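U., I forgot to send this yesterday:
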Amino acid sequence: MDSIIKPDLSGFENTIRDYVRYVLGKPMTDATSTDLFNGVSSAVRKLLMDIRIETEQRYDRRDVKRMHYISMEFLTGPLLANNLLNMGIQEDVRAILKNMGLDLDILMACEPDPSLGNGGLGRLAACFLDSLASLDMPGFGYGINYDYGLFKQSIMGGYQREKPDYWPSRSSPWLIARSGEKCMVPVYGRIVDTEDIEGGYNPMWSEWKLVVGRPHDIPVVGYGGHTANRLRLFSAWASEDFDIQIFNEGDYFRAVERKISSENISKILYPSDSQEAGRELRLVQEYFLVACAVQDIIRIYLKQHDDFNQFSKKVAIQLNDTHPALTVAELMRSLVDVHGLEWDNAWDITTQTLAYTNHTLLPEALEKWPLAIVEKVIPRHLQIIYEINRRFLETLTVNYPDDPQRLHRMSIIEEGDEKQVRMAHLAIVGSHSVNGVAKIHSHLVKTGLVPDFYDLWPEKFNNKTNGVTPRRWLLSANPGLARLITESIGDKWIVDLDTLKALESLGRDPAFLEKFSMIKRENKVRLARLIKKTAYIDVDPDSIFDIHAKRIHEYKRQFLNVMHIIHGYFMIQEEGVIPTAPRTYIFSGKAAPGYFLAKLLIRLIHGVADVVNKDPLVSQWIKVAFIPDYKVSLAEIIIPGADVSEQISTAGMEASGTGNMKFAINGAVTMGTMDGANIEIAEAVGPDNIYIFGHDVEEIQAMRGAYDPGKILAQSPHIQRVLNAVNSPLFCGWENDLFFPLFDAVVNHGDYYMNLADFQSYVDAQVRLSGDYVDKKKWAQMTLLNTARTGIFSSDRTIREYAGEVWGLERQI
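Result:
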């Protein structure tokens, strides 16, 4: 590991004082904690900018190849602590602030989570940016500067309530406005068919409206302080020229209305697509992102090049899921329409530059856009997509002359009552690399999701198993464990997580195991305080902390978990079977506002918690808690405090997961199905250090069509008792038949997510877990081996694989 380059802190205190006095106009004695947080962040930003400018000059001198990561989400989490750690100055700053009478921990607690993402997709993107900078590679993020995130979750009467999740983006100390680099984005209008001077077809996109993309940068400093890249976020603003024209016509209110409409583009993450207006806004949002990104990428390239001959040798673009798939059409439009390249040359450049990551096997998550909406919003792009598809189908006709059904399946345009653009197909056709995010997921992409494309282009498809940054998810989130590891094996693990393997030999050292276990308990005490503060429930840190923290979705099977809790309740209450060890079941996660069953499941969790936690006997052995508004700052407390990590999705439905990796690295034992990266975690930690249950992918696929949950129900009195309770007033009080839809989905509508099929196996695995937990030495060794053997799940490893196999990116130091 290169030595840490610590910045000069001699003027740090004066920078804070100057900020409070000259920016806020206050004496230090009047400054609030938030004022002081902003002052400290301002001083840190000053140091960051020195690194950022030096980094950019280094890249420019060498004319390096740059990778641009386009994503609708970047879930960065609070940045002050991360920046201090990566620059190696956290303790130095702590000492400076202490001399000023200030507490760094109090000030860091003032920082809100930036509302720039929702879940795993955005957190993965943030981990990748951290790894790129820590590996000294020129990799940059492109996203949207949302004013509001998905939503802020609160719980009222057991029900999820959504509130605006506003973060002070316009006053954030980390956002640096780049007003001189704004992008002009045309939208709407129509195509006029014209000819060029040689008589060739020359479509003119006319009568468009103009939206301005204003860029803001968040510096991303790598560990060691050598490199600072950037995350560039665009805010949507109405075109001044367009608005003033309407204003001059005397219609002030229409001018303001247009301005508001334009700026709605960057107001909120994922506007609801349940109505036509929402769907249109979501498409405009996706197009706005890629249009701004492509313009900016080309602008940066042309600073050092006079033509596009070197473009794909100097530029790599990664599409994070299908949201930025329009990059294919937008890059083609820019090259052909704006810069005058011939189609074939532009297409070669496009396909050699772009790469696509698939994140899902769920059909509803593979975006399709009705042609009518695409034609209304971006008519020129629809023309380009049609032409891409025409040429693609010609290729298919040559390769598969006697297979018209294959052409139908592979076409970018889906036929039917409402023709649609298949965004995943567009991304695959327009990219030179297509990857899944775990071994099983990549296999299923090739064999189940798009087998026709794999048959045509097997060389395009590859796997890049996800990873998480050890700086955020161990060094920062779990400082006690980080210190113990460093004291025991040195600090190389911070940039080479595989060196955690050296901890394995310490599993035979009783003194080390005792320290390891005590740190876990301290983390559980901290988590218990959070539960008391947010869920108003007292929990025992000596009980098993069994945690299910992720988006609420049927395929993630929080319902199966709740079924097991209800089963445990009845085993104690009716059969007098006392568990081997007390357990606290902890849930956290958001349900999409329009996802009725997911929101009902949150209500069920609270209904069960209300009954269980108030029962004098059962509550001695079982407690249930739901921590609202799951986000990065909460995850940093929840994950280190976990004994058990619930990763119980229906096999074949979770692409990878990254929460499973974060939990395992922090010494939690996984309870999981053979799904996503669970398979690779099981391979890494060994079968004795993970609890695998349920049917695997092949078995699930074989059961489809013939699966009858009624047979399982008829043969299991325990399942009958659990489901009858769900469908009774027991957990819903006066709200009769409240949970019938959950009961109905499982009993009467096929149990698509196989809850009943996996129930008994899940119960049996939980019994084994409880038995192992009471053997303190065995449990400590299991948890240690989870930490020691999961170094492979560092995002540094993932980025090295992308850099070497997809992007052609090199370290620049």
